[in-house]
Amino acid sequence: MSGKNSGFAADLAAGIDLSNEAAPRRSGIANNVLTGRSNRIAELASGAVITRTHELVDPARCRMWSGHNREYGLLNEQRCEDLIESIKAQGRQEMPAIVRRVSGDPDCDFEVICGARRHWTISWLRSHNYPDFKFLVDIREIGDEEAFRLADIENRARDDLTDLERARDYLRALDAYYGGRQKTMAERINVSESWLTRYLDLARLPEALMAAFLEPQSLTIRNVIALKPLLKPEEKRARVFQEAATLRKRQIDTGTPMAVLDIIRALSAAAPPPKKSGSPKRSGSVQTISSSRGKAVLRIESADRKGVRLTLLHKSGASREDAEKAIREVLDQHWT
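Above: the chain sequence. Below: its structure as tokens.
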């Protein structure tokens, strides 16, 4: 018997089946699958892997959690445009919203902790030619304070959540979960006290001041630096509130909201005590002429034999008539 035949006979004697060479490969695949399942079970048992319950539900059976940090009523097609296009392109919602089950409400099964935009978008799509879309949710069992921290972490870096929405959420949570203790809250949400203070200051701006802003969601924590000093002392505060009411009426009457910085400049100009009309306020060689209501109108930068250099303060809140009167006064003083 040749060496080749001898090897064949040896294989037969060893009981190896050579009739199907794929059998060992199939056996190996099966072993790998079983091994993978065993490893998965071990990971679940050890806590290394956490399973989540995801469901596709009717968005109409979901309500917003009362502590949600986004103002649902402000959502519209423009604010959700990116999400609308993404879900249409993918044919489904990729990222689940975080919800928890509710009881005692015949109209709802879940309340949304994180995912107001996803909920609004799916609801909008279902009513705009995509009736088969469902709301993908991740169902959790969590308390209110944990829900607040979870929502804060998810939305903290999002540009589409305004500073004012976030600030009001923080102010509500401060009393609801942390007994008014700012230091405790800062530690729990892992931020500095000074960072948290800026948001709380924004949320605490009085309604009489906020009235000046027809679009308050445009305010940011940077604006607080200019607005907070306008609230003290009491007489300054009263003048600022009066100017805020005037600015609001003017914007409503014209139908044109003012830019945030223009409003802040007008409020700041109204804060100092009113000056007698025509009485210049001197600061070195600079003079400021104010209206009878204390609105700065003109700034005289210099006046010499070469001429008079003026700056027209047209965004201080003074009227055109105030400006014309101030210019006439300058002409009376310097024209010979």
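Confidence is low (pLDDT under 50) at residues 1-23, 279-284.
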